[in-house]
Every structure is written in C-alpha cells, then in structure tokens.
Amino acid sequence: MTLKIFRKRNKKNQKNKVASLPFRINIIFIVVGVLFIALLTQLAYLQVMYGSKFKAEVNRSDTSVVTGNVQRGMIYDSTGQVLVGNSAHQAIIYTKGVNELSGDLYKTATKLSQFVKVTTGSLTKRQLADYYLANSKNLTAVEKKLPGLDGYSEDAKYNKALNYVEKMPNSHFSKSTKNAAEIFAKMSSAYQLSTVNIKDEHVSEAEVAQVGEHLSEMPGVNVGTSWSRNYPNGKSIQGVTGTVSNEKTGLPSDRVNELLAEGYSRNDSVGQSYLEEQYEPVLRGTKSQTQVVLNSDNEIKKEIKKYGGQKGDNLQLTINAKFQKTLQSLVKSAEQGAGGNSTGTYAVVMNPNNGAIIGMAGVNRNPKTSKITDNVLGNINSSIVMGSVVKGAMVSGALMDGVITPTNSTLTDQPITTGGVKKSSWFNHNGGSNISVDASGALEVSSNSYMMQLAMKEAGFKYTEGGALTMNPSIFNKLRGYFNQFGLGVQTGIDIPGESTGLKGATGRRHIGSALDESFGNYDAYTTMQVAQYMSTIANGGYRIAPHIVQSIRGTSKNGKLGAVKATVMPKVLNHIDMTKAQRAVVKRGLYDVVHGTNTYKTGGELDTIKPEISAKTGTAQTFYNGNETVTLSLASFAPSTHPQVVVALAMPNLGVDAESNNMQLAKRIYAAYWKEVQSTSTVK
C-alpha cells in the first residue's frame, strides 16, 4: 500500500517539473530579448547622437612640430677672414616617431647596423644590455635562467635580467652586436619627434648609398647634414672664441636644465666657453620647423615644412688674423729662448682710443719638462708681479694727490733705510750715485727711491734715514685707489668671461714695509691686460676704456659671405682720470724719455730704433719661483708718441736672474709685425 502511494507521488512530481521547464526557458528568452532590444536602442542612440563624433575620432589626426638644427654663425677677424667656420658633413640621422617601443627601435637599429659602422668606445654595459633585452626572445631566455621570478613586477623582472646580462663576459657579444647596440642607444636617447645623428663623421659613400636603398625598411632613418667647427687659422684662437659641444658631449651638465627650458635638445650643439658661450643667442640661429600630421594610430600622414630655419648671425672680431698668428709665433719663440724657470710669455696689442684688441697671445711653459702650451687667456687670468712698469700710475697718483706738482717735483735718489732694511734704485744700491730727478726723470731712469719717497709723502710720513717706518696702513688703499683708476688691480671689463682682478698683498701694520714695494710695482700682481689698459689710459688722455674683442654682429649675405652689420660694439668708458693737462704732460714726457732721453741710466734705450717712435715703461721685478730667485720682465708702450694709435704690453715671468732685455727684443719684433701686417706707417700723423 505504501509503495503504490510513493509511485503516485513520484509521477506527480515528474509532471510538475516537465510543466515548469518551458516556463523558465520563456523567462530567459524574454530577459535576453529585453537586453538585446536595450542594446539595439543604445547603439541606435549612439549612432544618431554621437555617430559623427566617433567617426571624427577614428579619423582624428594630431599636429606636431619637428625642429631641425641649422648652421651656426661664424666668427671673422677684423679684415673679414674666417677665424671659426663650419664644415658640412653627410650624416645618418634618425627622427624618433610617436610611441616607439624598444622592440621597434631594436629592429631598426639591427637593420641599420648592417650598413653603418659606428664607434663603440663609449658604449656602456647598461646600453649593451638594454639592446640585447629589447629582443623579446633574449628577454624570455634570460628570465628562464633566473629562478624565483614569480610574483615580481615586470619592472623588477627586467631589472634582474639587466643585472644578469651586465655580468655576462664582454666576449659573449660580437662586434656587430656592439655596433647595433651603439646605434640603439643613440636612437633611444632621442625624444619623441626629435632628430639625432647616428653617425656624423667619416660617413662613406657606400654607407650613404646602402642606407638610401633601404630607407623604407628603417622608419625614421634618413641621410642628412651635420655641422662642426673648423679653424682655418689654427686652433689657438679657441683660447679666445671658446668651444662648442657636440653630439657626444651633449649639453653642458651644469646648464642642462636651463638650456632644455630654452628649447634645446640634449644632443644640440651649444657654446661651452668664452665667446661661443657668451654670444650663444646670436650664434645659434633659429631651428627649422616642420609640421607633422599624425593619424589616430600615431602614424605620420603628412609633413609640411613651415620654416626653413635661419643660420646664426656672425661675429666680427677686432683681432687681425694674420697679425694674431704672427704674434702668437713671436711670443712662443721668445719663450723658447727664455729657458731657466720661465713659466710663460704674454702680450696684448690694442687700440688705446677705442679698446679694440688687435692681437692677444700667450704661452705657458712647464719649467720641469720645458713643454710649451698655448695660453692666450693667460693675458686676463694670470696675475703677475710686473715691477717698474706701473711707475707711470704711481707718479700720476702723486700728482693728483698734490705731494708733487708739474713745476715742483725734484727729489734726490738715495737708498731708503728703515728698520734696518735698505731699499734702493737699480743704479744706486750703495748711495754712491745720488742724483736729483724730477718726476719725468724718475720715470726715465726708473727710480725706485723716488717712488718710495712719493709713497711716504702721500702717507704724510717724514722719512728719517734708519728710523722706524710708522706709516698708517691706509697708504695701501690710497696707492691702490690711484692704480685702480688706470685699471691696475681691477677688472678691465673685457668682453671675455673669466677675467681676474689680480692679487693683492697683505696690508696689516706689520706689512707696512711692503707699501714701499707697492710704490715701484714689486708687491701686488696684475694681468697683462690690466697693464695694456693702464698704458692706453695714459696714451688717450685719461679715459679708461673697456677692452673688447667683438667688433660687430653681422648677418650673412646671399652668397654666404659676411653680411650687413646688425650691431656694433661701441667703446665703453669706465672712468676718466682727473688730471690737468700739465700733469699728463709730466708723465708722457717721462715715458718718452725712457726710450729717447739723454740720461745715462735711461732704461729703454734699445727701443729707440723702433719707427714710428714709441713711448714706454719697462719693468723688472725680483721674484721667486719654486724657491729659486728669478726676475719678471714687463713692458708697456704706445706708438706713435705724439698721436698714439697702438699699445703693446707684455710680461715674461720668472726668467733667470741674468735676463736683461728679453722684453725689449720681443717688443721690437711685435711693433715690426704690427706696422707690416696691420697698419701702414704712411697713415701715421
């Protein structure tokens, strides 16, 4: 009975299940139908309302601007000769596309390496590893060799792979692999839509031809032109003009952020020093601009050249190239004959009426090896104790101070003895040649005693032979104040960075004896450029003019030659010396008599053969170098004596103690070269 009841219930349940199945399927169909209708409705809505927008998005194109480098402005001498020019080279270049992946660069670099060989001396292990792992097969193979990478991020995995590859022996990588890795590194350094040189020197015709044949296989690669600096008159002029960075050095590390903000690329050429750096905005020019149109896949659809770029403007210098080359040769020759402990020779030739530097030469010498190297800028940054050459400024200061006058300036040259120390003139060591000299005569014979007596008078000190020197130390400031007015001990204002102010000795009370040394140029140190400015100030009537080496900024003509003047450097008067005409005449007469006077002890008699005739002041300083006694010879002069048109200043530090006329012999050669190569004597009044 129970079994029958169970069977009846089981049949009833089966009938209920069969009856509910179609109902559930219908529910599912209804839900799917509703969702499908909703989807169609949404698609229809989007098509009607936003169809045009989406279509525009698919066909969207972005516009970007690609810039290209232009030829740098050139640097010319005063006669229009090229001092710093540009050499054009064929180059293999690469312009990085948008969203380029390392795998894309790997393929292009590997292909290009088949046709182009580059130097790999600067290739780092990291760069080699990056190239090697840019091949996905190599990356997978390396990761398989590294256990326990599960759970690491992709970056962490890559860093471990890098570490592994960097430790692989160098012999594992072939020359061709390294060549491709170097190319890959240069491509990787490029910014999006920026151009880098893959090879810009010694590109062979075969390389150009092969690259040209396969351009379609190497996206972004092309054949272009690069520029580098050349120096038709020799590289010694770099001491003045400075240098320019190249593809390898890139932007100077200490200015990279500043230059990037100004629109430079990391691989751009930029002036690194001196005129190249100072006049960078003038010389750099303006880059070309090409408008690049990209589609939605960041593929270049069109290129439109908007601006061809503008070559940089040119600098024309005051330097005469031919004379500069001769001057450097004369200075080097003089140094070669100096011997001993000599440490260099420097010379400046300038126009005293406008500050134009006509020539500036210099060399250093290593006394231990006798090796001589060019050092043109030693004229503005090497401080030298010059000796008696500064006495013209000393006499001028005393005249302005009123301790002597043009009609009352006679003193007796005698040894000065204070505190047990005796100091004297070169011709009167023991007092046996005591002579009376006025201010002009003191310059003629280069009297140290006269200058020391002037210093004591300016200090208000009454000299007593053998007595204590109790002058107030403020005398240092007074003497230097007058020297500064002529340019000694202060920056000259030359338009080249890095100028020294010279060196000042100690000025405490216990150094008061050195104030006497200061009066005749045997204490403070000055640059040769300062000496040239000082003599120019005397020559031109008391105007201290800033020396300058840039004459004008000029464009480029249609035929590529030096173009029209865009800006001219005008003489810059820094100060005027407050002296009367009579006071100036005293100093000028003394400088003239140094060469042409009648006194037996005149110091510049060897210069009287120079025509047109010159006025000058020679200098000899007792110095020490590496514990050895030496002398420094100097000279400052101008010509012609009546209407000065050129100043010659020179310094020869640390010569042997027996050196006597090296400075005058060099001066005679310099003047001869000047009148032959720069200015005809027929133009002299």
TrEMBL record:
It comes from the Bacteria. It is found in: Cell membrane. The keyword Membrane applies. The keyword Hydrolase does not apply. Its main location: membrane. Residues 346-668 form the Penicillin-binding protein transpeptidase domain. Keywords: Cell membrane, Cell shape, Cell wall biogenesis/degradation, Membrane, Peptidoglycan synthesis, Transmembrane, Transmembrane helix. It is a single-pass membrane protein. Pfam families: PBP_dimer, Transpeptidase. PANTHER family: PEPTIDOGLYCAN D,D-TRANSPEPTIDASE, PEPTIDOGLYCAN D,D-TRANSPEPTIDASE MRDA. Belongs to the transpeptidase family. This is Peptidoglycan D,D-transpeptidase FtsI family protein. It comes from Lentilactobacillus raoultii.
